[in-house]
Fold this sequence. Notes:
By secondary structure, the chain is an alpha+beta fold. The longest helix is centred in the N-terminal third of the chain and has 18 residues, at 2-19. It has helices at 2-19, 70-73, 210-219, 241-246, 301-305, 361-367, 373-376, 424-432, 453-466; strands spanning 30-37, 52-61, 65-68, 76-83, 86-91, 93-98, 103-107, 131-136, 145-158, 165-171, 183-186, 189-197, 205-209, 233-237, 256-261, 275-279, 282-283, 289-291, 297-299, 312-319, 322-329, 348-351, 354-358, 391-396, 411-416, 419-420, 438-443, 447-452, 473-474. It starts with a helix and ends with a strand. It has nine helices and 29 strands. Strands 22, 23, 24, 25, 26, 27, 28 and 29 form an eight-stranded antiparallel β-sheet that branches. It is flat. The chain folds into three domains: 1-225, Beta Barrel (Thrombin, subunit H), CATH 2.40.10.120; 233-329, PDZ domain (Pdz3 Domain, Roll); 348-474, Alpha-Beta Barrel (N-terminal domain of MutM-like DNA repair proteins).
Amino acid sequence: MRKVMLFTMLAWSAAVLVAAPPQNDPLNAVVKVEVTSSEPDFILPWQNLRSSDISGSGVVISGNRILTNAHNVADATVVAVRKKNNDTLFPAKVMFVNHECDLALLTVDDPKFFADITPMEFAETPPPQSLVVAAGYPLGGEGLSLTQGIISRIEVRRYAQSWMFLLTAQVDAAINPGNSGGPVLCDGKIVGIAFQGNNSGENLGYMIPSDVIKHFFKDIEDGRVDGFGGLGFQYIELDNPDTRAYLKMSPEQTGIMVSKVHPGTDKNAIKVNDVVLAVDGKSVANNGNIRLPDGQTRHFITVANNKQLGEKVALTLLRDGKIVNSELTVRKLHGQVEPFMYDTRPEYYIVGGLVFTRLSHSYLLACGKNRPDRLLRKLDNEKDSPDDSVVVLSLVLGDEANIGYHLLMARELVAVNGVKIRNLRHLVELVDNCKDEYITFNFAEDLPVILNLKHLREANPRILERYRVPADRYLKK
């Protein structure tokens, strides 16, 4: 059967490449995306890193739109596209971008760009073992590349662009740098968008499946990007029979145990030690999986991921041995580690050479191997309030005013003169309004830094000049 499918797909590929007239070639819809970008330096947040040129792929869809990856256009200063049958670079504009699911929509103002392109259509992502073709412009050549393979499995994995867990499909077709944003096709229709690989094995490429793409399109119908939400609790699997017995589960019952309820989640709707037996009527296995009608497995969180913010998820719970029907609203989760900061300037504040900024995924990534475990542990925690943010000492610009502390870096600031810090703006207000002779910065793990505030203020101008810093702060309005 697979040989027949392979022959059919190869015949389709040959047909579109050889037999179709140029103006009707469906692969004209697969375009090359060329971008110049300038990424902020999150350790020295007043400056940018060196600009870079990257290339990826995209596909023309209805409405004169080009679907591609968000990471292709992140921090872009110039975006342009090039067609398979035309060497002209056409300037493009970003319409919508969602870095959580690594998808973006572009358009081109020049109508000539779309003149000989038939937009591609979408289809549902087929089950594992289905034959697919990845189309795009990988590095190492200028022309369109087609590679065949099968869908190996469909599962929830971490997206490199956002570190968010969403549905992916693994394919064994070659997906290399430059393929990102290109369509993965089955029977000539888009069933996924290529977006990342895995260097730990051979031919481990991944595509964004139709479920995630449909969510993105539904989200932007109102003209804005809201993104994905969650249910706001953590859980443990229940493979151990003694744990199930302790929770008063009957032999035929399966589910997962709620181990933590985040701030912002309705604590009457779900409680610690509740057993989630089903979500939206679908039974939850002891490992957190649910079954689709065709027998495929999915992680239960995909039920929430398929819904827009504000929609409800019905829960069947076991609480103290009794069945309880409840529901949770899919909502934005505000982690203590803020999301990656793309297409924006990082906020910062400098006093006496001490450089403070907000803890984000971008900052942790910039720290590389130097990122401390104490900050990584915050990845699983949610803020008490959306206005809160963890403030970190990024580094110290050495000066006589801060002598003895110049090697400090990547430290969480918890208080100033005994006042707990809520966010970076709160820190600025406390320091600017401080009338005391000395100021104490209290860092995590009981590390106090005590300095003369007058000396810090006097040092600021010379430190800014010495290190070529344009201003002592940048705060968004």
